[in-house]
Amino acid sequence: MPDPDAETQAAALAEAVSAGDRRALARAITLAESTLPAHRAAARALLARLVGVGDALRVGLSGAPGVGKSTFIEGFGMMLVERGLKVAVLAVDPSSARTGGSILGDKTRMDRLSRAPGAFIRPSPSGAGLGGVARRTREAIRLCEAAGYDVILVETVGVGQSEIMVAEMTDVFALLLAPGGGDELQGVKRGIMEIADLVIVNKADGDLEPAARRTAADYAGALRLLRRRPHDPDGYPQALTVSALSERGFEDVWQAISALDAERRARGWRAARRRDQAVRWFRFEVSQGLEAAFRADPEAGAALPALEAQVAEGALAPDAAAEAALEKFIRR
């Protein structure tokens, strides 16, 4: 039975978020990120009240450490804010595999943007989340949309094959790279290249500008060979150059993102993609819920240490051990 107090609090928080209260938005995201059962129930009640509220352009941005993601996002975000757009940045910081700790330094690296009235920056630890995003990034996106933000930039952790997940929660996915040549193309995973809508070569300034332009040309050729989506306009995916330091090239990036999103909307692809993303989210939550229920089951939980020991010693095959553990859970 629903808790009346929890429902009242969810209603008040939803109203504050919808009014664009940044403190309320921060509280709402903290609530959504919590793993406490009471907080999870409150977060679900809150999100249920905000279904269908807002429609932001969701942009995923990835790149290797040191490529200048934070500098790019601050300058790009400031350009959008100065045009009257509300910009939210969901910056995912890597967590320590040993301690679970995270630096969460994006707000300090984006000082100007963090102080802009039309911007909201939320650093979150990646924790055990896969795909370079935090466990509750999808909920954070929904909450930022409900708060009236026009553009949501999702900065992901590093570059890797698993980062394909970020493309499953955004409308446009951009890969930020540093200038390089020769074997540079071999250093980027094919999987992430196949989903990139834009490749943005940063640091196109000073002595590095010629190298940046060559790199962009190399990637433009590689992108044409990798794939061409039938629902995208001619010329995509694109490779562009920018200088985040001197803030040059941002206009070209924004035009490329806007044109691609407008065309996808017109062709109905964006709406279809959003529906597919919602179904994937549902399936992910089901799998996470089943795993949590399995580990919380007394009989299955009690059997795990012995089964794991047998697997470690080579006395039992992993698949056979998993089947034995699942049988105990399913029987209950």
Task: Kindly list the characteristics that best describe this protein.
14 helices, Rossmann fold, 332 residues, Single alpha-helices involved in coiled-coils or other helix-helix interfaces, alpha/beta, 7 strands, seven-stranded parallel sheet
Structure summary:
By secondary structure, this protein is α/β, with parallel strands linked by helices. Helices cover 53% and strands 12% of the residues. Strands 3-2-4-1-5-6-7 form a 7-stranded parallel β-sheet, sandwiched between helices.
SS-derived structural category: alpha/beta
- Average pLDDT, rounded to a whole number, is 83
CATH topology of the largest domain: Rossmann fold
> Could you give a short account of the major beta sheet?
7 strands, parallel
The total number of structural domains is 3
Strand line-up in the sheet with most strands: 3-2-4-1-5-6-7
CATH class of the largest domain: Alpha Beta
Question: Uncertain runs with pLDDT below 50, 5 residues or more?
Answer: 95-105, 127-133
Q: What is the chain-wise order of helices and strands?
A: HHHEHEHHEHEHEHEHEHHHH
Strand content: 5-15%
Total E-strand runs? 7
Describe the structure.
Helices cover 53% and strands 12% of the residues. The protein is built from 14 helices and seven strands. The protein has 332 residues and is an alpha/beta fold. The protein folds into three domains: 1-51, Single alpha-helices involved in coiled-coils or other helix-helix interfaces (Up-down Bundle); 53-266, Rossmann fold; 281-331, no CATH class. The chain has a seven-stranded parallel sheet with strand order 3-2-4-1-5-6-7, sandwiched between helices.
